[in-house]
Design brief:
This protein is mainly alpha-helical. The protein contains 13 helices and five strands. Helix content is about 50%, strand content about 5%. The protein has a three-stranded parallel β-sheet with strand order 1-2-3. A two-stranded parallel ribbon has the order 4-5. The longest helix has 29 residues. The structure holds adenosine-5'-tetraphosphate.
Length: about 325
C-alpha cells in the first residue's frame, strides 16, 4: 500500500509586516518543501488577539499576510492556505485540550514570560493559553512535521506532550507531531541588538528588515546594523553581530565558507555593502509580487475561501471523533 505523504502544518501571525527572520526561519522552508509534503499553512488571526489589536488592522494584516505568503512562493495548488478563525474547530479543540494541558506547563513557557514583559496581571488570559491553541492548530490536522523557527521549539514540545497524554487518556486519536527546525536560519537576530531575536514587536523598525522594505530602506538598515569590536570578519561566539550578518549572508547567497578569505583586510564596510546587495536582490522580487497581489484583492480572497473549505473538510470529521472519545456526544436523540 502506498505510504501517505507526511503532513506539514505551520502558522504565522497576521501581526503587521513579515521580516527576514520569519522568511529565513519559516516561510522560505515552507516554500522549498512544498512539493515533498502535504502542506497546511495557516494565518493565525486568533493568535493575534492575544495582544491588543484593532479590528480594522487585524483584518487588513490578515489580507497582507495572505498576499505576502503568495508572493513568497506558497502555491495554493500544492498547499492549503487559510485563516485560522475561518475554521471554528481550532477554538473548540483548544477548549477541549485546556482540560489536558496543565497550568504548570503553560507557566513554564518562556514566550509567555517574554511577551507579558512582567505585566502578568494585566495581559490577556489568551496570551497565557496561546500555546494550547497552537497545539490544537497542529494536532487537529494530524500533522507529522511543524517547520518553525527556534523560538517555537518549546511550544512544539508541548504539542507532543499534550497529544501523547490525550492518546493515553482517550485512546489513540492524534498523530504526535515533530518540530522541523533547520540548523541554519532558525534564529535570526535583531540588527540593533544581536542578543535578541529579530522581531517586529520588539525594538525599532531598524532592528528588522521587512519584506516590504524598499531597496534604499534595506541598504540603510544593513549599513546601520551594529557590529562587534575589532574589524575581522568572522562568525565566532565573541562576535554575535557578525555571526548574525554572516548567517543572513550565507542563507541568501548559499556561500559563506570563503567569506573570511573574501573580506580579509577589508573590514566590516565591504561585508555590509555586499550583504545589502544580496538582501535587496532577495527581497525585491517578493516585494514586487506582493504589490501585484495587492492590486488584485479578489485573488487572495478566493484562495482563502477555498483553503478554509479544504481545511474544514479535514477538521470537521476529526472533531467528531474527538467529541465522541471525550464523552461529549450521544445524549440527544435527533
Ligand atoms: N528572528 C527569527 N528567526 C527565525 N525565525 C523566526 N520566526 C519568527 N522570528 C524569527 C519564525 O517565524 C514564524 C512565524 O512567527 P510568528 O507569526 O509567530 O511571528 P513571531 O514569532 O511572533 O514573530 P515576531 O516578529 O517575533 O513577532 P512578534 O514580535 O509580534 O512576536 C515562526 O515559525 C517563527 O518561529
Amino acid at each position: 500500500m502506498a505510504e501517505r505523504r507526511k503532513r506539514v502544518f505551520s502558522g504565522i501571525q497576521p501581526s503587521g509586516v513579515s521580516h527576514i527572520g520569519n522568511y529565513l526561519g519559516a516561510i522560505r522552508n515552507w516554500v522549498a518543501q512544498q512539493e515533498s509534503y502535504d502542506n497546511i499553512f495557516c494565518i493565525v488571526n486568533l493568535h493575534a488577539l492575544t495582544l491588543p489589536t484593532e479590528p480594522a488592522s487585524l483584518h487588513a494584516n490578515t489580507i497582507t499576510m495572505a498576499n505576502t505568503l503568495l508572493a513568497a512562493g506558497i502555491d495554493p495548488q500544492a498547499s492549503i492556505l487559510f485563516v485560522q478563525g475561518d475554521v471554528r474547530e481550532h477554538s473548540e479543540l483548544c477548549w477541549l485540550l485546556n482540560s489536558v494541558a496543565t497550568f504548570g506547563e503553560l507557566r513554564r513557557m518562556t514566550q509567555f514570560k517574554d511577551k507579558s514583559g512582567g505585566a502578568e496581571e494585566s495581559v490577556s488570559a489568551a496570551l497565557f493559553d496561546y500555546p494550547v491553541l497552537q497545539v490544537a492548530d497542529i494536532i487537529l490536522y494530524d500533522a507529522d512535521l511543524v517547520p518553525v523557527g527556534e523560538d517555537q521549539r518549546q511550544h512544539i514540545e508541548l504539542a507532543r506532550d499534550v497529544a501523547q497524554r490525550f492518546n493515553r487518556r482517550y485512546g489513540d486519536t492524534f498523530v504526535v507531531p515533530a518540530p522541523d527546525i533547520k540548523a541554519n536560519g532558525a534564529r535570526i537576530m535583531s540588527l540593533e541588538d544581536p542578543t535578541k531575536k529579530m522581531s517586529k514587536s520588539a525594538g525599532s523598525t531598524g532592528s528588522y528588515i521587512a519584506l516590504t522594505d524598499t531597496d534604499s530602506e534595506i541598504t540603510k538598515k544593513v549599513k546601520r546594523a551594529v557590529t562587534d569590536s575589532g574589524s575581522e570578519v568572522k562568525a565566532t561566539p565573541d562576535k554575535p553581530a557578525l555571526t548574525n550578518l554572516l548567517g543572513i549572508y550565507s542563507l541568501l547567497s548559499n556561500t559563506v565558507s570563503r567569506s573570511r578569505v573574501r573580506y580579509a583586510g577589508k573590514g566590516y564596510g565591504a561585508l555590509k555593502t555586499d550583504l545589502a546587495t544580496i538582501v535587496v536582490d532577495a527581497i525585491r522580487p517578493i516585494r514586487e509580487k506582493l504589490l501585484e497581489y495587492e492590486a488584485n484583492p479578489d485573488y487572495a480572497a478566493s484562495v482563502l475561501a477555498e483553503g478554509a473549505e479544504r481545511a474544514r473538510s479535514l477538521a470537521t470529521p476529526k472533531m467528531e471523533i474527538v467529541r465522541e472519545r471525550m464523552g461529549l456526544t450521544g445524549h440527544a436523540i435527533r
